[in-house]
Amino acid sequence: MVAPADVKKWITHMQPPAVERMLKEAATENVISFAGGLPAETLFPTEDLNEALQKVIAEHASEALQYYWAEGYAPLREQIAQRMSARGMPTKPTEVLVTHGAQQALDLIAKLLIRAGDTVVLESPTYVPAIQAFEMHRPAFEPLTRNEHGIDLQQLRDVLSRSRPRLLYVVPTGHNPTGVSLTYPQRRELLELLQQSDAYVVEDDAYGELQYGARQTPLRALAPEFRQHFFVGSFSKILSPGLRVGWIAAPEALIKELILIKQASDLQTSTLTQLVLSNYMSSTSLNRHVERCIDYYRERRDCVLASCERHLPPSLRWTRPDSGFSVWMELAADISAGSLLKKALNNGVAFEPGEPFFVSQRPLNYVRVSFSNLECEQIEDGIQRLAGLLSAS
Amino acid sequence: MVAPADVKKWITHMQPPAVERMLKEAATENVISFAGGLPAETLFPTEDLNEALQKVIAEHASEALQYYWAEGYAPLREQIAQRMSARGMPTKPTEVLVTHGAQQALDLIAKLLIRAGDTVVLESPTYVPAIQAFEMHRPAFEPLTRNEHGIDLQQLRDVLSRSRPRLLYVVPTGHNPTGVSLTYPQRRELLELLQQSDAYVVEDDAYGELQYGARQTPLRALAPEFRQHFFVGSFSKILSPGLRVGWIAAPEALIKELILIKQASDLQTSTLTQLVLSNYMSSTSLNRHVERCIDYYRERRDCVLASCERHLPPSLRWTRPDSGFSVWMELAADISAGSLLKKALNNGVAFEPGEPFFVSQRPLNYVRVSFSNLECEQIEDGIQRLAGLLSAS
Questions:
Q1: N or C: which end of chain B has fewer CB within 10 A?
Q2: Residue B108's CATH number
Q3: Torsions phi, psi of B329, nearest 5?
Q4: Is B348 left (phi over 0), alpha (psi -120 to 50) or beta?
Q5: A115 and A100 within one domain
Q6: Of B269, B284, B299, which residue sits at a domain end?
Q7: Chain A contact present for B53, CB below 8 A
Q8: What is the per-residue pLDDT for A4?
Q9: B240 in a domain, yes or no?
Q10: A177 and A242 inside one domain
Q11: Which chain A residues have a beta carbon less than 8 Å from that of B169?
């Protein structure tokens, strides 16, 4: 019997099994968890979604429970296109493909673009499941150092001068894990470099609508004429991840190719969840809901920063997120986040060790601290416990 | 700019764009459509599903709208395992992965098993989107002739003697498009051959619960100790395709690998649809619903066969489905199904030209006639119109 692929050999960016196990246990226990980075359940607009569900079942049950075309529910494509256009990114419904969450968007784009050995440029650190989606196609990764100051664009210049990357994956707004967005000049410069290359850019905008200060403009809005551009959007952070609805916006010719790939991958996104979402959006103001989310998460962002300043040794470095769900923390060089996690769990606190977020040269002394699903008292308590552990170690 | 993949070059099994367009238009018009092969909307248990939805929103909204683990909602994995066990396939919940429909099950298995150039053995004709899921990984296909008499097992012996196939994809029950299941001796012989090889077998059981006569035993039940076996199940045909819930049952070690691939592909299947399904199954008898479905589709199967015998020239050959949604018809050798479709649409009838169902040597004179979503009067009317066109051509 030929062994199947040992998947761990080609999906290498993940928490070690022991850490994975600890985090999974922590999720079910009475632990203050800075891990996960889940949206706050208290924000889910249960009543409005329930109304939408009622309406779908009462008026569109046959349609909602039946097969639909691979490209997505026509009214929803229209609504997504309108939403994008209202955000300064003129988009036609035929330039939109509805996906089973933003993660599937990345998988479909990877299937379209990446052949084994192709160069893929990533920020490092970056969103772990994105690395995994690309890893399945066995590319060569080129990391660009990413921190609170943005992307190291000199590294990008170097990469472009010595190779022809197939794609650049970037999270310009609400970068995960740092929570720090690229500035306007960085966006302009990034786009200029890319437009001179033949690389595709994948702009992951999962947190793009959850900005806590001055709003940054999406890359797609800055360069609407740029054809090598995939914009990935998601309803997971602004509405509900359990629905699993995201989308890709790209030139129609690319969307047409992606529709074929989508069909071969899972035929279509759930008709029921698409209809619920579409009905929700036509009967309620999603924008008003997003405003509530921004206020909610901004408050927690402020709490976590205040707690960090109060309790953590000033020698530590951490980011000041302008978007997103988490703070990225650099511990002293000799502290391993994995060992710290073990102690933290004994003290009722969990967080995400930062190692898998790095594309290469994976330092062990980084930590992602998500604040999105906690109350300020829990945040204060949890940071205080962490500080105690750090000063004891 | 490097062009992205021209997807049509590696997903080659599909209707030509012109046929695709005709069928898509036909779906929205006042046409008797034997195309599509959709489950009958009238069977959707809307009331029971609505009750389940109510319950989920009233009691589990936070959970249903939140992220969940990649392997699938724990109670649903349990229910699927119990259902499989009750069908003579003892299965543990840890041997089940919940997927976004059976199509995603095929995609995940393909990602795990197929490297470019690997040999994949398929029945020919077979279910088109399965061919597409495999095509994305650029294998070499070996077709096994499939017709109303089953699979040509001598061809399989030949293939196994001269190559080491990576996997065999087979639809033993309710084979799509023929609707004809493998007999018990054929199943036994197929399994014996496979057990002597090192190929994996993917058993697609999408129609396995919709058998209209004597029940055939799934391969998994005949060889429970066989480790190179993936069983693919689906709720699409017995309940609702719009939910997009299917599953893979396989040895736990393989499921563990598939969970990693699932996470990299779309994180998880919609929590909402999984909870709705799970609640539906615990408050209602899905088995009783399946019995209703069997009666309903059997009646239509009988109608289509009676209409064919009444109206079609006896020189034509067509299958007698014991399961599934369609009859497979061989036209005279000089008739192209594509041209016939054009004329048929002018006469208010649609069907699926058979060419893409063939893995190689794709004859043009086959037609798939689906009866699942039509009333008997429509079936009679449609077959009569088709007969008229055939006798005129």
A1: N
A2: 3.40.640.10
A3: -125, 135
A4: left
A5: yes
A6: B284
A7: yes
A8: 63
A9: yes
A10: yes
A11: none
B260 shares contact with chain A (CB less than 8 Å): yes
- Residue A5 Cα, gap to closest chain B Cα (Å): 6
- Using an 8 Å CB-CB cutoff, list chain B residues near A244: 100, 266-271
Q: Which of A4, A136, A164 sits opposite B254 (nearest CB)?
A: A4
HSE (side-chain half, CA atoms, 13 Å) at A230: 31
Does one domain contain both B33 and B101?
Answer: no
CB spacing of B270 vs A57 below 8 angstroms: no
The residue ranges of DSSP E strands in chain B, in sequence order, are 32-33, 96-99, 119-124, 140-147, 150-151, 167-170, 200-204, 229-234, 246-249, 317-318, 326-330, 349-350, 352-353, 366-370
Rounded-to-integer distance, Cα B299 and Cα B294, Å? 8
A-facing residues of B in 289-348 (CB < 8 A) are: none
- Answer for the pair A108, A99: CB distance below 8 angstroms, yes or no: yes
> How far does CA B228 lie from the centroid of its chain?
21
Together in a domain, A173 and A26: no
Residue B1 lies in a domain: no
Which segments of chain A have a pLDDT < 50? 1
Residue A44: list chain B partners with CB under 8 A.
61-62, 65-66
Chain A neighbors of B63, CB-CB under 8 A: 242
Report the run of H or E that residue B222 belongs to, with start and end: helix B219-222
B244 touches chain A (CB under 8 A): yes
- For residue B2, the model assigns a pLDDT of 54
What is the least distance, in Å, from the CA of B60 to any CA of chain A? Answer: 10
Contact B244 A267 (CB under 8 A): yes
Checking if the pLDDT of B4 tops 70, the result is no
Put simply, the answer to whether B136 touches A68 (Cβ < 8 Å) is: no
Domain count, chain B: 2
Virtual torsion, Cα B310, B313, B314, B318, nearest 10 deg: -80
Please state the separation of Cα B340 from the chain's center in Å: 25
CB contact under 8 A, B57 and A46: yes
Residue position matching structure tokens 């399945």: A136
Q: A9: nearest CA in chain B?
A: B257
Minimal CA–CA distance to B112: which of B258, B278, B227? Answer: B258
Task: Give the dihedral sign, CA B135/B140/B143/B144.
Answer: negative
CA dist., res. A149 & res. A155, Å (int): 14
pTM score, two decimals?
Answer: 0.97
Report CA Rg, chain A: 21
Position B5 confidence tier, pLDDT thresholds 50, 70, 90: low
Strand partners, A329: A318, A367
Please state the separation of Cα B143 from the chain's center in Å. Answer: 18
- Picking from A226, A256, A266, A271 by the largest number of B CB atoms within 10 A of its own CB, the best residue to mutate is A266
Which letter does DSSP use for residue A284 in this model?
S
- Which residue of chain A has the CA closest to B48? A57
- What is the Cα–Cα distance from B281 to B73, expressed in whole angstroms? 13
Return the residue of B nearest to A62 by Cα.
Answer: B41
Residue ending a domain, among B232, B252, B284, is B284
Which structural domain range is residue A352 located in?
7-44+288-392
How far is the C-alpha of A103 from the C-alpha of A128, rounded, in Å?
Answer: 11
Chain A residues within 8 A of B8 when measuring between CB atoms = 260
State the ipTM, two decimals: 0.96
Nearest by CB to B46, from A61, A263, A265: name it.
A61
Residue found under tokens 């939805």: B53
Distance from CA of A316 to the nearest CA of B (A): 31
What is the reported pLDDT for B95?
Answer: 98
